[in-house]
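Fig. S4 source data, part A: sequence.
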Amino acid sequence: MSASSPEANTRLAGIDARLYLVTDSAQCREAGRSVADTVREAVGGGVGIVQVRDKDIDDDAFYTLTREVIAAVDSVLVDTNRRVPIVLNDRVAVAQRLLAEGVEVHIHVGQSDTPVEEVRELIGPEPLLGLSAANSTEFAAARESGVVDLVGIGPVYDTTTKTDAPDGIGPDRLGELVGEAGLPAVAIGGISTDRAAELRGRGLLGICVVSAICRAEDPRAAAEELLAEFGDGHVEAAQ
């Protein structure tokens, strides 16, 4: 399911993973928008992966939320050849329900969630499977599992999105960890338009944002600006 190096991974082919949005329902409400409206604008601005995340609602409400997000993304992708995966945060039962209905969804889990080997057995071989990982032991376990397609590394910067988040590791340490991971990697945690350029040249597939889009006055413009700053992720920003 996974590969020994980011370049060798073909399961991510056709996906522009440079900008990965993780939704926050409360932040969207505070900004005066629904999650679906925020996603619609953000995907219009170039977001290439959307993770639906809400720890405060039950599975039925999460199913409804996911359906709304899927409809929002589909409305943007009409008459385009873009592929924007919808990833569910830890809701394996909801993913199973949607997959049984013929809906393409994917999963991301953390270290304290359902083990990735079990997740893969439950969702089957086709969906992408992402995992949060932060050290050599966790990276090695992810590689050895043979089922992880993508790792999320962070927090890069201090973040208030998660109250229990550790201190930010910084761009330089991030680059070291990406090199250790041996899997396609995205960065998350406190990433803003002002900081996106600092993450170029770190070996990343992309950057994940929450508040930089969910709290933005204009999610479409925020997505466009983040992409402009991160670029293709390969060329380091001028100092």
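Fig. S4 source data, part B ends here. The CA atoms of residues 186 and 206 lie 5 Å apart.
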